[in-house]
Amino acid sequence: MVMTLIQEAHPEASCGDQGSRIQTSPSSLSIDPPTLMHIKEGCTPPLSPRSLPLSPRSQRRLTGHTISTSPLSNSDLIRESIPQFYFPKGPPTSKEAYFECLDRVNRIFSGYPNGLPLSAFMPVTKEICKLPSYFSSVLFQKLDINRTGLVTKERLISDWLDQNMLVADGATRIFTVLKQHDTDYLTQDDFRPILRELLLTHQGLEFLHDTPEFQDRYAETVIFRIFYHCNKGGNGRLLLREIKRSHLFATLQQVDVEEDINKVLNYFSYEHFYVIYCKFWELDSDHDFVIDKDDLLRYGNHALTYRIVERIFSQVPRRFRSGVEGKMGYEDFVWFILSEEDKSSETSLEYWFKCVDLDCDGVITPNEMHHFYEEQVHRVECMAQEPVLFEDIVCQMSDMIKPKKDGHLTLRDLKNCKLSGNFFNILFNLNKFVAFETRDPFLIRMEREDPTLTEWDRFAHAEYIRLAMEEDGEDVFMDGSAEVLDDAFEYY
User: Fold this and answer.
1) Segment of 19-33, 227-241, 395-409, 469-483 carrying the highest mean pLDDT
2) Which of 85, 134, 374, 491 is the most buried (most CB within 10 A)?
């Protein structure tokens, strides 16, 4: 084929002695003999045209560099610059927004040429930085790095406006203000300053000013609840992405505008704190602020089985922070009661899944289910009731949860089912197991009336009313507090 192309390109090529250098043997050319009939004997192939450019491969071999083979000349090439589309710290602030904010800064600092003191810093916190008012002291200390007691306009511009914080989302703003300069996470201690200021300034918490010990307990409870719901890693280090996936910033803003702290159900409700603390105090019979296995067995009128309490104190679901061997501290109890009374949250499902997964292989098998249900059956028999056979329970749970593999329940299977809490109640909580079997119509009506409330919200509301009635005794009907009881009946 090559020789044919040569013949077509130069049909009048002259013959000469150079033709002797070509082997016309079919075997040597590895082409078919008929092809050679088109080439006159003794003809030489033409030389390659010197004017043709070398192939890219030849150029690389000769020069060691790759030369562009684009048919366009350099003058024809159009350089198109792609604008930046990824901004790690968020998109830049528009010039209009920047100068508008700068004007507000100038107005705020107009009467303070040397810098703003803490007493006049609130407008910066709310108008410029868009943070809740009780962040004022923390933000002031963040900007007053020299501890002069004043924040200058130049410091605010360089540390806030020029750092692109005007367009940052709320989670990034609170994370930047609260975190330490050498860390990329928040700890529990980072939240304590804003809780102290909140207790001093919020109208709904003024009644605690005379009881500083309960101020500390309230602040601890709020922090524990924040980390319970937001810190999915459970390592005590709250990351920015965890804050963004939570409702923390929206809740912090709600606290700033809501006068009734009890209406902020997420984290800050004083009624919720009151229920948690009183429950712990009831179990802590010797009031040493730690509880043991026997104390926890009395929880919920002995609702839990011995075997599940044993698993809790083996610290499989979560290691205790009490510092006392074999004892559960207040923080540990907060995690327990939140998990026990609301088994619909992801943290609660992970807590109880680790308890039931005896071999820690990530799968709950029928044998592990039977281990816990066996004690439950015995307790039902002691109540002179007919227990449900384990085989029926397994079938019922399988129909409810619908695991991908029969006989193997994974954490993902439980998270995909809205009724997973009943699975754990059947295994180790007698009172809730009986309530599930009887299908209490009052509970069903409560859920239908306000589906936005969680199981924890309903439990805390009912328990607070009960505890308030026990605290007031007969006076609940005498001093106008009967409205609390009316609210309870209305709630149910």
Assistant:
1) 227-241
2) 134
